[in-house]
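Dear Dr. H.,

I hope your travels went smoothly. While you were away I took the liberty of generating a structure for the chain from your last submission, since the lab meeting agenda had it listed for discussion. I wanted you to have the full record in hand beforehand rather than looking at slides cold. The sequence, exactly as received, is reproduced here:
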Amino acid sequence: MTAGVSAGWKAPAGLPATGTVRSVDIAGTVSGFKARNAVVYLPPAYSAANRPVLPVLLLVSGQPGSPESWLRSTSLVTQLDSFAAAHGGLAPVVVMPDPNGSDQANTMCMDSALAPADTYMSVDVPHWIKTHLEADTNPAHWAVGGFSYGGTCALQMVTRHPEIYKTFMAISPEREPALAVNRSVTVHRAFHGDTAAFNAQLPLTLLAKNKYPETSGWFAVGSQDAAYSANVRVLQEAVDKAGMSTERAAFPGGHSWAVANAALPQGLTFVFARLGLR
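The corresponding predicted structure, in token form, is as follows:
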């Protein structure tokens, strides 16, 4: 892993005290996916005349939800600003894309009969970041995280696209993407009944046959969330067997944004250290 941005940065005078939050259109140029606007956080250091090469963190919402859910339901921006204030204005460029397209839609963050969501997340979003923002392009300094659906999506990204995302933060993830409790309903709706096609894209399938020695991850779950606690145990065992380096934490509560908010400080600390921010 190359040296992180913290190693050579000295903050200039006159940086703003807080970062900037923007709503941006990330078009599905290759995928054709119709996404809602994404949210982007640019830390104070991004405004420097000679800005540093900042790492990238993608955050995906739960479902139902939207990119703005991170702003409404957590103290994310406050935490990012606090970190930046203590680190010379440095924090990641944080991009909150929309792989669902509407509040109630569920693409399962996959390419399927429902939507080309995987192509959107693995081709269109990274291309937009690299062409519209000045940020690090080294995958060692790219991370993806999320809550619930978003945590599942984060695991999908690092297992399907390890050449893009090397670090993940999965808060209360599903064991596998799902549209309904009955697995056959999911397979029928998204893959026309082709179970093999569905299975081929699943993190647990990929983890069983591939090794990911360069990938690190952090799991969190509500201590009263029995179903998702079981998911995390299964997933962490699988990622560890596949060579990933992971940690896990539990926070009081069930399956809720309150747990995600409580988890964020520890999760961001884990992620930032691996992005070269200390």
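Two observations you may find useful: The first strand starts at residue 20 and ends at 24. The CA atoms of residues 15 and 57 lie 21 Å apart.

With kind regards,
E. W.
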